[in-house]
Structures are given as C-alpha cells and as structure tokens.
User: What shape does this take?
Amino acid sequence: MKTPTYTPIGRMTPRFLAEFDSTSAMMTALGKYLRGEDSPGRDIASLPEWLAREVNKFARQTRESMYTLSGFMEAIPPESLNKIHSEQMSKWVINNYPKKPVPAVAIGASSGALTHLQVALGIPWLPQTFLIPVRRPSDMQVDQPKLTMKWAADPARLLLKNNPDLQLHHMFDPNQDRLRLEHTTYFRVKKLRLGTSYERFITDVLPPGGTIFVSECQRKWPATKVDNRHFFQFGGTGGPSEKEYLEGSARVEKFLNQYESPVKKWDAPKPDGEIPEAEWGFETSLYEDIERIAREGGYKVKRIVFEEPDHPSPFVAELYKWWYRQRRIMSNRLVAGSFTLIEPYWTLRTGSVPFWMKYNTEFSAKWLEEYLDDHDNYDELFLMLYPPGVEGIGMTTVERWESILAKARKRGEFLGAGAEREPEDFGSLIKNHTDFKNSIKARYPIPGPLGIRKFSEFVEKSQGKSKIRFIDYRPQDINTEPAIDRIKDSRQSRPAMSRKKQSKPAGVADKQAQQNKSTRKQTEITASAGKQEEQGKNPAGPSGKEAQAG
Amino acid sequence: MDELQNEDSVEGIQNLTKNKVAVITGASSGIGRAAAHEYARRGARVVVAARNKKALDEVVKECRNLGSEALAVVTDVTKEDEVNRLAETAHAKYGNIDIWINNAAVTLFGRFEEVPTADIRQVIETNLFGYIYGARAAIPIFREQGSGTLINVSSVVAVTGQPFTGAYVATKAAEKALSESLSQELVEEENIHVCTVMPTVIDTPLYQHGANYTGKGVIPPKPLHSPEMAAEAIVNISEYPRKEVFAGTPGPMIYMAKAVTPPQLYDRMVKRNIDKNHFRDTLTEITPGNLYQHALDQINGGWHQEIHENTPLVKRLKAGMMLAGFGLGLLAVWGLTRSGGDGTS
Assistant: This one.
C-alpha cells in the first residue's frame, strides 16, 4: 500500500510549527494512513513505552516542569517570525500526502471526526489553520493577557508583513494551556488564500468533476482587533464561558487560587466582536480562491457545515458503523479519542467505530454520553484521553469518564491511562498507542476507500439526523470579506443590522436563509460576554433534533 | 497434581485443545464424527453440525461420555443462513470459536458427461459453497477475536486428481485453492490460521452414500486408513497450525510420483488403478445417494476388514524410499571422507 510521495524530508514538520497541535496531529495521522503507514500520533507518542512509565514516576511538579519545558522547546523566538513563509506550511502539508488521483479533496477547519471521514474516503485534507508557538518573555505573568497582547504586536508584524495571505489569531488561554503558556504564546494563523502549493496540489490530484469538501466549523469567539489581520483571542472553547474569561467567576477565582495566581480574575482586553475561533473556526475568505479554482478545474464544492468541532462525531461514528456492517464487521466497539489522540489506522484495523472529542471537557463528555444514550448498542467502549496538564475549568473528572465507560454492555476501559490517571499523566500519550493495539485483539483488513457515491448515499440516508450539514456551495451564501473588514463593517452598521434582523420574517422557508445570514453576519458586534451559555451546560443532543443534513 | 497433569496433557504432551471451542460440519459420520470424538477426548467444547439430527444427538452423547461439553446444531451447509446460524449459536453459547472445521462433503461417481448436471451442482453446493459459507461465517469471528483456525478438510485428490469423480475432485481442488487464497489474505494476522488437511483413502460411509451412476459397486481403493487417523491429523493441525498436511502415508508419495512421472503415463496409471481398485464388478442400481438427503450415519464405512496401513504397494514404496535414503547416506559419508582427506592440505 506504500505510495511514493514527493519527498520524505518534506514531510518533516517545519521548525516553527507545533507538533502538539490539532492540525499537525490530524494532518500527520491522515497523511500516514494515506501512505499506508501505522500512525503512532504526534507529540511524544513516538517515544518508547518504558519511557512513559519512567516519566510518570516523577513528582507532579517535575512532570509539570517537563511539560512546560517541552512547550518552550517547541516554541520559536519572536525574531524568527520574519523568516516564516506561509508556503512552507503548505508544502509540508502536501508532502505528507501521496501524489495520486483522488475523487475529492478536503480543505478547511480541523476536526478529528472529519479526519476519520477523510480516512474513510481516502482523501487528503488541506488545513487552513496552523499553530506557531512563540517564546514569550518569562517576566510576563500567565494571567496578564493584556500585557501579552501588547507585547505580541511587534512580533506579529514580523510575521504578517511577509505573509499577506495569513490572518493571525493570537490565542491565549491560561485555563487549558496554562503550563505551556509559562514561556510561550500561541500564534494561530489562518490562510486567507490557497497559495501556489495548495492550488498545484489540487490540480495535480483532483481530476475535473472531483469534489472539494470545505469543512466549515462556524464556531466563533470574541476577539480584539490588534492590527490589520491581527486579532487577540482570550480563552478558548470547552472551559469557562466567554463571559467568565472576561468578567471572572467563582470557579475562575478558585482556579486561579489553586495555581497561586496573584489575581482573582483575568485582565482580559475588551473584545471588538466575534470572529472565527482561533483553533477550530473556519475563515470564509478562503472561499474566494476555492470558488475560482473550482471554476477553472471543473470541480464541485460541497460545504460541510457544523457549529462545534465535536459535532461531526456522531455522524462519522454512524457512517463507520454503516460501512462496517456492509463489510460484515460486527461494529460493536466504540473508541473515543480526544484532541490529538485519533489513531485512524488502528481504528480501521480493529474494526472500531471512532468518536472524536475535542478535549477532556464536560462538553465533550456530555456529547459522547448523549450519543451513547441514543445508540446503546456497543459491547465495548474505550477512551483515549489527552492529558491536559492542568486541572482546568471545564475539565472532566475520572469518575465522570468511568460513568460513561460503564455504559458498555461488556467492556469499558481507558486506553493509555488507568483509573489512577492524573492531568499530567503524560506517559499516557505514549501508552495509548500501544494500549490500543494490545487491548483490542480484533484485526480487520484496511479497506479500500468508501467512495463518494456510497458516502453520498449515507448522507442522503442520514438527512436530518445529525448536527452536520452538507450544502452545495453557492457564492451568494458566503461572505468572503476578511474578518477585519467584517468587524469594521459591523461596527458601523450595527443598528441597521439589528433592524434588519427584526424585520426579517422567521418562517420555515427562511431557515436556510437564516443559516446563511448567520454565516454572513458572523462578525456582528455583540456584547459577546454573557451572550452564550456556559460551555457544556446545555449542548444540543447528538440525535440532532434541531439539525438538518444537507 | 497428577489430576492436573492428566487434564492438561495428553500422553505427557501439553494439551493445547482443552477448553477450545471447535465447530465441525459433517460431524454425523466419518472423519467429522471421529474429529468430534478426538476434540472431546482432549477437552474441547464441540459444536457438531450436520443434516441428520438423530445422528448429531448421538454424537453429542458420545462427546459428553468422553467428558466434554457438546452442542448439536442441525445444519444444511448448502444454505448460507443455516451456516451463519450455526456460527451465531456456537458463538452465543461459548462466547468464542477457536476452530472451525469445514468437513461436510458428498461425492458423485460416474462418467463426467453422463451424470446429471443437477447432481454436479449439488456436489459443488455442498463441498464448495458449504466451505465458502463456513469460511465467511468463521473469519469475521476470528477477526473480532484476533485469533482462530479454519481447517478445510480437502482430499489428496485435490493434488493427484482421480477419474470418474470429476465434481468431487474439482471441489476438493477448489477447497485447497480456497485455503491458499484465504491464507494469503490473512497472512498479516499472526493468530489466524487457515489450514488444509488432505486425507487419502479413509474408511468412511462416503463410498456407500455417494451418488453412483457407474452401474458398478464402489469400494475405497487401497491403502485404506481409519477415520481416527484423519481426525488426529485435524486436531494436531489445529494445535500446531500448518498450511497443508496429508493424512495417510501414500499422500506425499503419490504427490511426488506425479511430479516425476510423465503426465500421460501418470494419467494411465491412475486410471488403471481406479478401474481396478475403486469399482466392483457387481452391478448396482443408479442412485443419487445422500446428495439431497442424509443417510444413516456412522464413523466407519465398514471397510475395516480391508484396512491395511501397509499394503504391499506401500510396503514396496517405503522400502524403495528407505533404500534410496540409505544410498544417499552412503554417498554423503563417502563424500565427507574424501573431503576430509583433502582438507589436510
């Protein structure tokens, strides 16, 4: 199954990109699968298992320091930012895929569930968002986001002046990323243009009539405009609500106190509006190039639209189950992985149904739980949990996960970590891969791709049953203006938009129009703090009663 | 301690079959029934399948008398849903299936162009599709378990050929080819094995029960072996999986003879041997035998009085091989002596 690729050296992650990131992990796992290779994942997962045991023997503080240090080692000095060119990222991505004809190419937002979908279809994915960890002066406190935002303005300019096709979402989340942020800060960049490498790759591998799937995660987050194409996002999805990040709360205070912070709430900068979330959200400006290349190459464009990165998981799980049954595989086992722990190769090899969770948060736990309650037909359940490093707000307890594992009819187990697991159980990053292979004895052959026709058949069949929509692309549905302009526009036109909103009839026929409107008007300024319910408090059920499949 | 040794070992050798779950098709008679006994004797849990319920109940009783758990599932292997049900029943009862033995077979004697097409089809349905359905039922279970052994009981005729049993021979060769193909498909699965057992002539009721359009009585050609010998070969291969094994001494010899004999001469020799040793001069009614309904089942075909592990032919072949071996040994010694002398320089 080995297929020649451009060059193995080109597959090496560029020095400035993070390997512990969702994009890197998902793209690498997909690339390895498409090249017919096993996927031990990213991060430290390629280290030997004995090291996992040794690592976990260290005292908690030592392990935390190691985690912080590993983040620092991966980060680049700010002055190196002017050496980065967006094409380096694109070249790295395409070098990871075999150069052979495919019926479709995916572009856009990352979601582990969609990685499993891309694996099933045997198609490459060209990510939009990349993470560049940048070293931060150590005299700056983790709980001083304003200071960090101001400090980042100059380094950001170094990056952006050479890369007019990138939009910087400087993300700073002292809840989930606390340990890494001691000496590091996260520059997440979104491609606004496809660029030469992506375009050449698409035209090389996608014959006329092929499909471009655009994964369009519509998750947004309040952000502060720092400069042209430069935003600062404080916090991230899955933990405290946007409001809590901005205004604080009892649990924020408790969290800060637990980590001996001198503050009781963060001094978050005032957001200017909502833009696509730094890590998961899709920036629609990319549609301009997608539309052009589709027109020139004779391609179809299909939008895969969803709100949260976890939302495609039930759909993909059911797709796998359906596919397995057609292959006369029992499909009675679910393996739920989180964040970078996805293992697409071993999922198929063991005939397991994949369910991806964004992180070990209550939101994801509830999402999985609801899926299981609606589909209580799994004999075996396995959980691969990413060690978050901190006992952050919104993180789920071991007991909570155990109660989910208890839903298995015959066997429910953690992979990579036992019941004694702790947030800084970094050994589990190594162990989950070997545990996957050793704990699940089933072995099925790696199948050929599912095929677009079969996939369309399933999409048709599952219409209205999930929170993921497949929509034919129409230019009039999309606002391709960069987020910065949209923020500016919405600032000026806020009252008018509000009026328009009120006058719009809310009929059934307008459902699609409302969805489109939500895409177009995504930058409408709102006092975003307090707008949204606390994360995970009431996620819509995966049975998708309110969702429509396209 | 002694008790434990007795339970876990057979004649001092570690018993690898104990508590294994073995499904055997065609277990109401002949090799299948003998295999059920052998598995039961070694402590396996046996699921026996065939069309004849009464015979199966007897087999279950016999297995239980040998100290093992047994379960009968009436199965017509020409029907895929019945084979699937057999797998499901066995899996539901014991939680896993370690060994699946495709064994059910029928035969048809007569000139190939003269026998009814429907009978040829029925032979293929039983001998080939029965095995195909069995493999397709067992392999998904093996894959889910990550382990298991599929044994296809073929025949030496799969490699040697045999006249007047064209349909049977074709299916036996197809079974061997099927094993080969499946073995290759599953080569990456360390603990899943596909094995072929190729018995030579076995004293089973196959010869009486077979469809017969020759007008002559059929007898098994010599040398004849016991079903217990074939059963032991099956159990052994499930303990120490190998790709193919002959059950019966002349198997490898005939195979080698075929390889070194000019094709036309080989065909004449086989035809002559079958003419002479496989058919009686006594006239017999034309019959479809047990192709469409089960016959009275038992282990042996009643040919026991004619069983000869060492017929004159085999004795002559063995003697020849021993002589050749002795000669080769002498040559080797002579060669070594010479090279030793030269080596001093």
